[in-house]
Specification:
Helices cover about 70% and strands about 0% of the residues. With about 60 residues, it is an all-alpha fold.
Length: about 60
Amino acid sequence: MNFWRQVAEYLYIKKRDPNIPRSRFVKYMHGMNRISIFMFLIALLLMLIKLVIVPLFKK
């Protein structure tokens, strides 16, 4: 499966393929991956705010 397609499915941008079988453990794994991607994006956003935007207003 394409990497970007999988990321899009985790972020609810693209619907997942209904033909792929999903067991309980795969469902748990995808849920954990989804949480880690969201946490990573939030951390990037916070770093951007802290390192770029805040110094612009301190001048």
